Amino acid sequence: MKTENYRQKEADMKRSVIYVLLTSFLVAGAVFAGQGYRGQGGPGMAYGIGRITNLTQEQKDKIFALEQSLRKDVAALQVDADNVAYELHKVLTASTID
Length: 98
What we know:
This protein has two helices and no strands. The protein is mostly helical.
């Protein structure tokens, strides 16, 4: 009886971990999906900023710095999302429940 209760708690814990990992992965995917379209401006011209012609050089430099910071933050999030996906894959493909 005690082992069945322990196994049930262990299975519940695994299920909870899977739900947390899956939710994290889905949220990360949603974040990256929002970064998808960049238009025809190319790198450094996200969100159509390159089409605005009346910006001063200082404003352009600030936008460029913000975009660089965003890219760095997104790259770190991508690493986290990849790690979560890997851990989720390990849990889902495990032959036994630990």
